[in-house]
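Hi! If you just cloned this repository, the fastest way to understand the data is to look at a raw example. We've pasted two of them here, unedited. The first protein comes first, obviously.
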Amino acid sequence: INAHSFVDRKGSFQNILDAFHVGPVNEQWNFGKNERNLKYIECCLQNFPGFGVLGPEGDPISWIVMEQSCEMRMGYTVPKYRDKGYMKKISFHFIKYFIQKKMPFYFHVSRDEENLQALGSIGLKAAPCGWHQWETHS
């Protein structure tokens, strides 16, 4: 799979998310901000789908990246652009993509009320299970 996409300024998806965008993802991901996870994120961006939205200057402002376990993760929206429906649009695009490809997937989000409401608004439900941490090895 190599379907990295962003929504362009006109609201249509185009294939441009790649390892070049590793910086913003690494800076905003709770487990990022270090060289080890920078390499991990770069690998995810090179090998798995990532969808998002570009801002007026062409920089990513909202995104979700898939990990090797079919987990939608590393989702983030720049604070200035929140509450505009970007994450919902990206989530719908991801869901459509995976249904068309007949691929399993799931979203990993923090269990705060805002995230759980966002999942519910697109028809997803929280699973009553634990979470397992992946380890990266160099």
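Ok, and the second one:
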Amino acid sequence: SFLIGAAKLVVVVAIFLLTFYVISQVFEIKMDANLGHIFARSALDAAARSTKPPRYKCGISKACPEKHFAFKMASGAANVVGPKICVEDNILMSGVKNNVGRGINVALVNGKTGEPLDTKYFDMWGGDVAPFIEFLKSIQDGTIVLMGTYDDGATKLNEEARKLIAELGSTSITNLGFRDNWVFCGGKGIKTKSPFEQHIKNNKDTNKYEGWPEVVEMEGCIPQKQD
């Protein structure tokens, strides 16, 4: 009876193998090739993991020293893609977050903790500069201020608004013009000019997009405010 059982098992196994062989021929399942591919993939993945460069906050190119906040930002692209502001791996403003708009986009961050405080945008093409001036005046000392243009950030700017932004450490704000692209990171109560500013003029001869210059991007490490 043991032999009969063993013989039956052999037949069942044989039928199973034959069935599998037929299926594999029909569906062209190249089992060994697939297994080889899977093993090769896992080996490649492991190699990629070991050689992949480390990722820093906000995707910046190198780690910030202690007592610094990582940031990365970009101006808008023409009137199509909104600006993006990231601090300490927090995306504070972006088109995806749906909290950006035409004009000057502003994010406020606590200079001691790196915590986000506020985000707003002010339409400097069709809007009114007065609310922007009030907002600038209300910023507390020790606040990190990040700004990026989208579409047009200059038409409604007046001398008072420009002066208030200059006091945050900006040098380019005095000659920011129609549809220029500009990103800036400064601070309320800063006593020097900020090193964090990029400005590209709207110039029909050099513009990347028909009526707008290329996007400006900037990254860096903001020193934490000390008491």
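That's it. A detail worth noticing about the second one: The two ends are 91 Å apart (CA to CA).
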